[in-house]
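Appendix B, record 7
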Amino acid sequence: AVIGCLLDRRHPDRQTISFKLNGENLGVAFRLPAWLADVPLFPAICGREDWVVDLRFSNLKHPEKGYRPLAEAKAGEAVQAGGDASDAAGGSSAADEL
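Structure tokens (predicted):
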């Protein structure tokens, strides 16, 4: 199965996280509260027992119109490894797939 995550941060008061399963958009899963508008979010994967996951941040199998892969984030749109919240800015939408 291919799970995609869509992060829409274009509007500070209407930020959302949605998921896709094998290319089918499952709709909005979370509406972020306004106080999270400028807080950087980081991808995280959790699991139990024995399992394997491959992560893609570019060359997505099921790209979504209006979203860019996380790997295409420009300087100032994403926190780099070892960065902090002062490195991030909103105003974009990103997608990545597991």
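Remarks on this record: Confidence is low (pLDDT under 50) at residues 85-91. Residues 13 and 34 are 5 Å apart (CA to CA).
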